[in-house]
Amino acid sequence: MELLVEEQQILKDEIIEVKYKIIVEGVVVKKTLQLRRIAYYSKKYNSPFVYWTNNMELAAMQVVEIYTYRWKIETFFKKLKQNFPLNYFLGDNENAIEIQIWCALIALVLLQVLHKENNATLAFTILTAIVRLHLMNYIGMVSVIKKYKLKRTRSTEKQPKKPPNKKVHPHIMPELQF
Fold it and tell me: What string of DSSP letters covers 42-58?
């Protein structure tokens, strides 16, 4: 596992006790739980993070890495839920549901690779919407991304001012001929 964080960024690694009460057969019982509290400073976010764990064996940096990877997984599933909403399933047995979830995961990974490989400037949600609209058409997604990049570079350049469009009454407009 590659290191994502640096050793000197650990601010604290301490054992703390958390006291709580539970009711057992009508009697209030006071309990104490030992936890490990790790404070870590992130240079990337310029902010400290505090992690609580009951694992006393792992090194502090390993705990921070686990939480970092866990957060990446959370953002992955958030992207999955936003772009591939599984509001209803096409089948009602376990196998049909599992196949639909795997298909959504595979589509997400393929679109993510397409997005990264082409250094796409368009938002990932726009890319998924384009794919959803043109799923049954023969259209190359790489050409769509290139066209979008070209459109973005042209729109950022200064365009000469056009004279304002004058509105023409519909009865005066010439008929379109095909």
Answer: ETTTTEEEEEEES--SS
Contacts of 112 (CB under 8 A, 6+ apart): 124
Can you give the pLDDT of all 178 residues of the chain as single tens digits? Answer: 444 445 568 999 999 999 999 998 889 999 999 999 999 998 888 899 999 999 999 999 999 999 888 888 888 888 888 888 777 777 888 898 888 889 888 989 998 888 888 887 778 888 888 888 877 878 787 887 777 777 766 555 566 666 666 665 555 545 544 3
Measured N-to-C along each axis, helices 94-117 and 141-156 cross at an angle, to the nearest 10 degrees, of 40
